[in-house]
């Protein structure tokens, strides 16, 4: 349950120093493309916040989103954000079960009505009165509507909650829909990905806690700081695309040389996510760096968007002419990308 | 993920040379020049987030070589090490944050008189004072007790 200790006090009791806290905020600011100078301010604000009540509802999902968030190597800085929240209900993680678990949810809702954060992973079944997915005898639909009434904001974690995801893929037997199809009167932040990047989830929570604001969102309701660029824009293999150097099959010379995976079906050019910059598994790598094309998992309806291994068609993105133009633009890409990144930072931070 | 370094990998044959630089070092040096000039004129610190840039190993090396090594280096042990190093250009610091697995999680060029992570926060200084006073009080009481014996 929420308590009256500030986050700094809670962390101090756990032996977490203020410098560790500053380091966490510097990392967060970096991930959120904020000016690095924001880190100190963010640390000051986050240190003073009271623990935020969070109610996490899991609907039609595979638990991959929760795994993504909790399976990072501990102790990590990202995990610090768990100390900033009071996770009052999460039926996979909480010790209580059955009636006791549902009672904990109801108590948290009552005590923090209008103030709690609601996190949803999984899509919502609507077909046949939503009978295909229930918790404690209550359909996902009804629980979503009930809990959303007292929520300050909703974070739809994962592509299922954000866009319907795999449950919504053809032929969508359960009539799955995203949270935003049902809830219309609350701010909803979509953190898509299958699964989403853990630090993107914690980054959104950190921003809400520190700045008290909802991040600026893109046309799909995703935070622009993480979803503002395509994978292609930020890919370290981008220079090879610009030079017209492509892998034609897995393990050919191009693949071994680390050339662009566009012709092997990479969806990087049409996929907005932060994989290329934050990477995965503690910053070790991301799919393209491991030699596999991007599947586009953070985009709506990615599962029904054709083969993962067929190149994007002309209608979806670019053309042969554009490819050729890319070669000519190659020389300027390094500085161009650097300037774009700086411009983005300045815009967000209100800097010069 | 330092464990990954321990996985033995046999590489058969030589890999052809791949691109090692985007040519980012020179534009960054110009930016650092502007920031350092601002620091002197206004006292305002600034940072460049190296992780937000598409840096290849050659870019890092180019920047490192151009900035050189200065006379100050420090390691902060805060849930994984943070290395703070002043470059040969005074007022320009290279700050690298690692997690507890020794993976780089953030890296900055800080243009400042003193990187923030090295400063003692006033709240910590207050706590230090309280702690010291408690120790002195205990020490005084112990000395008094010894004298009474």
Word description of this protein:
The complex is a heterodimer of chains A (352) and B (149). Chain A folds into 2 domains: 52-227, Rossmann fold, CATH 3.40.50.700; 231-349, Cytochrome-c3 hydrogenase, C-terminal domain (Cytochrome-c3 Hydrogenase, Chain A, domain 2, Irregular). Chain A is 38% helix and 11% strand. Chain A has 16 helices and 9 strands. Chain A has a 5-stranded parallel beta sheet, sandwiched between helices. In chain A, helix 4 links the parallel strand 1 and strand 2. By secondary structure, chain B is of the alpha+beta class. Chain B folds into 2 domains: 20-118, HupH hydrogenase expression protein, C-terminal domain (Ribosomal Protein S8, Chain: A, domain 1, 2-Layer Sandwich), CATH 3.30.1370.140; 119-149. A 5-stranded antiparallel beta sheet of chain B has the order 1-5-4-3-2. The longest helix of chain B is centred in the last third of the chain and has 27 residues, at 122-148. The radius of gyration of chain B is 23 Å and the shape is elongated. The model of chain B is unreliable at 14-18 (pLDDT under 50). Chains A and B meet through helix 2, helix 12 and helix 16 of A and helix 1, strand 1 and strand 5 of B.
């Amino acid at each position: 349950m929420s308590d009256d200790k500030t986050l700094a006090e809670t962390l101090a009791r756990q032996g977490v120093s203020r410098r560790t806290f500053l380091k966490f905020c510097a990392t967060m600011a970096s991930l959120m493309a904020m000016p690095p100078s924001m880190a100190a301010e963010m640390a000051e604000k986050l240190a003073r916040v009271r623990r935020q009540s969070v109610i996490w509802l899991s609907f039609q999902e595979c638990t991959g989103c929760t795994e993504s968030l909790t399976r990072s190597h501990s102790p990590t800085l990202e995990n610090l954000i768990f100390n900033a929240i009071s996770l009052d209900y999460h039926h996979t993680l909480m010790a209580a079960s059955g009636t006791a678990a549902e009672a904990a949810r109801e108590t948290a809702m009552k005590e923090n009505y209008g103030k709690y954060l609601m996190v949803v992973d999984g899509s919502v079944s609507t077909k046949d009165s939503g009978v295909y997915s229930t918790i404690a005898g209550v359909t996902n639909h009804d629980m979503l509507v009930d809990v959303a009434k007292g929520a300050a904001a909703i974070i739809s974690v994962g592509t299922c909650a954000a866009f319907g995801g795999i449950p919504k893929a053809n032929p969508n037997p359960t009539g799955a829909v995203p949270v935003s199809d049902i809830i219309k009167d609350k701010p909803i932040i979509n953190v898509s990905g299958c699964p989403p990047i853990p630090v993107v989830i914690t980054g959104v929570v950190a921003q809400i806690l520190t700045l008290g604001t909802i991040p600026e969102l893109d046309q799909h309701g995703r935070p622009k700081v993480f979803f503002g660029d395509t994978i292609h824009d930020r890919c370290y293999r981008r220079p090879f695309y610009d030079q017209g150097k492509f892998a034609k099959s897995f393990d050919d010379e191009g693949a071994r040389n680390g050339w662009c995976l566009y012709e092997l079906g990479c969806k990087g050019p049409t996929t907005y996510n932060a994989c290329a910059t934050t990477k995965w598994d503690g910053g070790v790598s991301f799919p393209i760096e491991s030699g596999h094309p991007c599947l586009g998992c953070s985009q709506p309806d990615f599962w029904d968007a054709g083969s993962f291994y067929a190149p994007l068609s002309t209608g979806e993105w670019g053309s042969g002419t554009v490819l050729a133009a890319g070669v000519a633009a190659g020389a300027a890409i390094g500085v161009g990308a650097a300037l774009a990144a700086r411009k983005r930072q300045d815009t967000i931070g209100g800097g010069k | 993920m330092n464990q990954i370094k321990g996985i033995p990998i046999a590489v058969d044959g030589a890999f052809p040379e791949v691109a090692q630089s985007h040519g980012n070092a020179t534009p960054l040096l110009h930016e650092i020049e502007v920031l350092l000039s601002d620091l002197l004129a206004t006292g305002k610190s600034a940072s460049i987030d190296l992780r937000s840039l598409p840096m290849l190993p050659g870019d890092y090396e180019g920047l490192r070589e151009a900035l050189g090594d200065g006379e100050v280096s420090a390691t902060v042990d805060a849930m994984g090490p943070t290395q703070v190093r002043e470059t040969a250009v005074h007022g320009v610091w290279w700050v690298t944050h690692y997690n507890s697995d020794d993976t780089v999680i953030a890296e900055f060029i800080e243009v400042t008189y003193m990187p923030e992570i090295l400063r003692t926060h006033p709240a910590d200084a207050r706590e230090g004072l309280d702690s010291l006073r408690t120790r002195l009080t205990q020490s005084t009481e112990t000395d008094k007790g010894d004298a009474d014996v």
